[in-house]
Design goal:
This protein is α/β, with parallel strands linked by helices. Helix content is about 25%, strand content about 25%. The structure holds flavin-adenine dinucleotide. It holds the Pfam family ETF.
């Protein structure tokens, strides 16, 4: 068997959307290995999540309910993933390139004595299974071959579409046999509560930069985002200046987004920012500097003062949406 194992993510009893493009990646990998796509769901009371993910064209879903998995800890999740990978004969183990995936999979790779690819954006056959990943803020794309029998991969989910829903696959309980960790203890999980969609899931993102000059001025970014039912993002310079919270940061050292519509307001378009948003389907840039590099990636560019353009645009949109 040369199956592919996907580690599912969920929150508040619901499947996280980042799992879906990871399944698409896994299906493409399985087409090359000749195996099946299996999904592992770890948690406590995750039967519904397992049932939900089973509808996305996978061969089987394995779920483990245990108080040990109530809260994510790499120390307890990693041995469970390793056991599941070995049980199903996985030659590829994949997870979203999220905070959790980036924390969990290196540990899984070490335990499986496997080579690892981070941020995979493609998988293909070129005299063997190979992966493509960006380097240097997306300026270089590199091809990676993993020579170990098992390959562990975090997936850049913005580069894969979600699969269509279909017939539900078999769902099976999995005995991970993992005890509580002696080395690590869960303390708390502080989640930012927002009425807006999650930045990485949103169809519309409105992001503001240092050119906004204050946190108060981000209100017009929020107003535009709320008019379109979108999420709010920021450049690192805006975050570092204290105008926006850290979890809004988009870019090389922030979140990677690829919404249908991205507004870059008073953002110059440094390569480190582009690394987090240039996969967006339609990019609208608003900047008073006609030579700002953001206009090189923009589909629509508005040269002018954001303090005039954004409120006027919001008013206009309010009258039509
Ligand atoms: P600026 O470059 O200062 O641009 C402000 C823009 O606002 C200008 O183009 C200006 O013309 C425009 N402007 C000013 N006033 C107005 C107005 N009234 N109306 C319209 N436009 C106006 N950056 C990120 O964003 N994300 C990252 O993850 C990230 N990671 C990094 C990692 C490393 C290792 C390094 C070295 C840098 C990183 N950076 C990142 C920083 C990046 O290099 C830039 O410094 C940053 O993106 C600039 O942010 P900005 O465009 O908001 O600010």
């Amino acid at each position: 068997m040369a199956n592919v194992l996907v580690v599912a993510e969920h929150i508040d009893g619901k499947l996280r959307k980042v799992t879906l493009p990871t399944i698409t990646f896994a299906s493409q990998a399985a087409a090359l290995t000749g195996g099946e796509v299996h999904v592992l769901v770890l948690g406590n009371g995750v039967d519904a999540v397992a049932g939900e993910v089973a509808k996305y064209g996978v061969s089987k879903v394995h779920y483990a309910n245990s108080p040990v998995f109530e809260n994510y800890l790499a120390e307890t999740y990693a041995p469970a993933v390793v056991k599941a990978a070995q049980a199903i004969g996985a030659t590829v183990v994949a997870a979203p390139s999220s905070t959790t995936g980036k924390d969990l999979l290196p540990r899984v790779a070490a335990k499986l004595d496997a080579g690892m690819v981070s941020d995979a954006i493609a998988v293909f056959d070129d005299g063997g299974i190979k992966f493509r990943r960006p380097l240097w803020a997306g300026n270089v794309l590199t091809t990676v071959e993993v020579v170990t029998p098992v390959k562990v991969v975090t997936v850049r989910t913005t580069d894969f579409e979600a699969p269509a829903e279909g017939d539900a696959a078999a769902v099976e309980a999995f005995d991970a046999g993992v005890a509580a960790s002696d080395n690590a203890e869960f303390v708390s999980f502080d989640q930012v509560k927002s009425e807006r969609p999650e930045l990485t899931d949103a169809a519309v993102v409105v992001a503001g930069g240092r050119g906004l000059k204050s946190g108060e001025n981000f209100q017009m970014i929020m107003d535009l985002a709320d008019t379109l039912g979108g999420a709010v993002g920021a450049s690192r310079a805006a975050v570092d200046s204290g105008y926006a919270p850290n979890d809004w940061q988009i870019g090389q050292t922030g979140k990677v987004v690829a919404p249908d519509l991205y507004f870059a307001v008073a953002i110059s378009g440094a390569i480190q920012h582009l690394a987090g948003m240039k996969g967006s389907k339609t990019i609208v840039a608003i900047n008073k500097d006609a030579d700002a590099p953001i206009f090189q990636v923009a589909d629509y560019g508005l040269v002018g003062d954001a303090f005039e353009i954004v409120p006027a645009l919001t008013e206009k949109l309010k009258s039509i949406v």
